[in-house]
Amino acid sequence: MEFDLNRLTAQIAQYLAPRLEGFHFYEDPAQQGVKTPCLFIQGEEGEPDLCPGGGQCRQVTVKLTYRDRVNPTDWMERARQVAEILDDALSVVEYRDGEGEPALLRSTSRRWETADHQLVYRLTFHLRLRRREDSPLMGRITWQSTWKMNEGE
User: Fold this and answer.
1) Domain ranges in the chain?
2) pLDDT for 104-115, tens place per residue?
3) In 3D, which of 130, 97, 92, 93 has the Cα closest to residue 1?
4) Helices (DSSP H) in the chain: which residue ranges?
5) Which CATH architecture has domain 5-129?
6) Do residues 108 and 125 make contact, with C-beta atoms less than 8 angstroms apart?
């Protein structure tokens, strides 16, 4: 199975669409012509680290930003409802790469906060990735240097 962060965020949007009817999903918060209510879904990959037993451990964070009409009177209540839906729906996420069986990804941290009439919800996955068997390894690098001395030194 191959992991792709853009594929994960797209699958999260597809999974949430029936649970958040009437919502529009976007990748870029700076997009023009945004229709509300909406969720912006962005992925952030952490630096890879070596895992015990081989492979790479990588922390992946998905940030969902909820925006609604400008200053609705019931905004905070609506934000809490969206956060509860996200909490219920995103504890375990099914990930498919188009080949084979899906993988179940368990989020290890889910938290939300509100500021400036928007809800920011973050969930984190700790992934263990292995190199594909058919991917090429880095070749050997040979370094050879020659120094030339100036005459008379």
Assistant:
1) 5-129
2) 999 989 999 998
3) 97
4) 5-16, 75-89
5) 2-Layer Sandwich (3.30)
6) yes
